[in-house]
Design a protein that fits this description.
single chain; mainly alpha; 6 helices
């Protein structure tokens, strides 16, 4: 029983100083975190500023001049044609990838067979980001296309 008492005493002696240290460390840590939160809040306010009114077309890397659209009052950008979009997608296509995708999509089950170009989704998204929004007639052409990736782009 003496060994147990001594063990309990030594344990309590070892724990007592460490508890005091952790409390002092906790009080020191609370101050910098509140300062950090304030700094983060101020950077969020700065990042909410409105972007410049100039539009950048990523495909041509040119800054376009502001031209007001009479109907919507928005800034007009030159719209790519269906042929230009199709050529961009053909450049990104891969016959090997198309053969692999055809197995997984099971295109023969559809009434009209779906034609795959073998383009990855990130590539289609990059084309979408570069070109921006499409007019309704161009969207209609893309949606009614026989190519899966063109419908995905729409």
């Amino acid at each position: 029983s003496r060994k147990q008492e001594s063990m309990v005493e030594t344990r309590s002696r070892k724990r007592a100083p460490s508890l005091v240290n952790t409390e002092s460390v906790r009080s020191k840590r609370t101050r910098p975190t509140t300062e950090r939160l304030l700094k983060k809040r101020s950077t969020k306010i700065v990042s909410r500023q409105k972007p410049d009114a100039l539009s950048v077309n990523l495909q041509t890397r040119q800054v376009l001049k502001k031209t007001e659209n009479a109907s919507a009052g928005a800034f007009a950008e030159p719209q790519p044609s269906y042929k230009q979009l199709h050529q961009q997608l053909v450049k990104l296509s891969s016959n090997k990838r198309a053969a692999i995708q055809t197995k997984y999509f099971r295109v023969e089950e559809y009434e009209d067979e779906d034609v795959l170009m073998g383009i990855t989704v990130p590539d289609v998204r990059s084309v979408s980001k570069d070109t921006g929004f499409f007019d309704y007639p161009l969207l209609k052409q893309l949606v009614l296309s026989k190519y899966h990736e063109e419908r995905l782009l729409a």
